[in-house]
Amino acid sequence: MLIIQSALIAFGHPLSTFMGLASRQAEPSSFGWRWPIAFQGVFIVFILLTLPFLPESPRWLLQHGRVEEATDVFARLGGKDTTIDDPKILAERDDVIASVEEEQRLGQATWAEVFTEGPNRNISRVLLGAGPYMFNQWSGINSLAYFLPITFERNIGLSTELSLIIAGVLGIQYFFISWLPYFFIEKVGRRKMLIGSAAACSFCMIMISIMLKVNTLPSNWVFVAFCFIFFDVFSLGILPVSWMYASEIMPLRTRNKGVALGVGSHWLSNFVVVYVTPSAIANLGYKLYIIWAVLNASFVPITWLWYPETARRSLEDMDDVFRHERFGLTKTRSPGTRTKEGGDGVLRRNEPDMEIFQDEGKKTPDS
């Protein structure tokens, strides 16, 4: 669902660009700015019409004692051939029931608790969760996306119409590429995708900076090509992971508040980046993209050193990870094995996904 959300965010880029191009063709009047604003109401109406058909979260249903409805939702999420009597569905439901009961026993978390470490490592998880949100913005994506037509006009001398058309075509490609992680993100894992995407984004920003510095006709079109490539590699890693990661590592008790802080860091970063970009383009020129290249490069060691892998691990699995890893270098670098089934069909971890901590005499998810 979060990958679909990120793809739809990407769809807004070409839509707004072509909307701007169409409005520019209109006769000079208030229609040129009224219509793009009013058109956004179409999506609000669509949401209002489809919301009644959206099922409640199974966790929310279980929190309110609606077990049968929650089981039905779990079965629907399991696929068309999955029934409410499926052992995997019942095991997943029972895991969540146990978590909900523990959460209700402990009560609601306060904001003060969110900012304390404790055995659940709350503040560590808040900081780690906010990171990918900030990677998203500080990659320089919106320094390009928001001002791409202006960048094409001022840096390589294209006309306004051609700049808008190229930016719109780039946005369409961005939209289609952003669907691809849906097919492999669970297999590859969040860490590899984030590291690979950040490294590729850094390389693209270096090439963009060099091409703008060279400033010849061929280099200008190479600059345009690397803008396309940058959006592609960004959508294959940083984009989907940034919207997923925080909700996958937060403890249940502080999850809502922790994710809210992460989203807040995202939009605060968005404001800063978009606010400073026009002045940066005017005063720094090609040097602006060197800054984005350095920032993207820094995400690689940060992710490798501190970010545990969440793919194929439940919220309960991540609790185990954080209980046994202190704040520092992570050992959880590979996807879990929650897709494996036992002989009775119940979802469970495999032995290769477990590591015995001899000093503690406990088992915990592997590195």
Radius of gyration, in angstroms, nearest whole number: 23 Å
Main beta-sheet annotation: 2 strands, antiparallel
Please tally the β strands and state the result: 2
Tell me the span between the first and last alpha carbons: 27 Å
List low-confidence stretches. 340-367
Shape: globular
Lateral arrangement of strands in the main beta sheet = 1-2
Helix-strand topology string = HHHHHHHHHHHHHHHHHHEE
Question: Strand percentage, roughly?
Answer: under 5%
Q: What is the overall pLDDT average?
A: 86
**How many H/I helical runs?**
18
Q: Output the structural class.
A: mainly alpha
Report the helical percentage. Answer: 55-70%
Descriptive account of the structure:
With 367 residues, the chain is mainly alpha-helical. 69% of the residues lie in helices and 2% in strands. It has a two-stranded antiparallel sheet with strand order 1-2. α1 (2-25) packs antiparallel against α2 (31-39), α5 packs across α6 and α8 (122-138) runs parallel beside α16 (255-284). The longest helix is centred in the last third of the chain and has 30 residues, at 255-284. It is globular, with a radius of gyration of 23 Å.
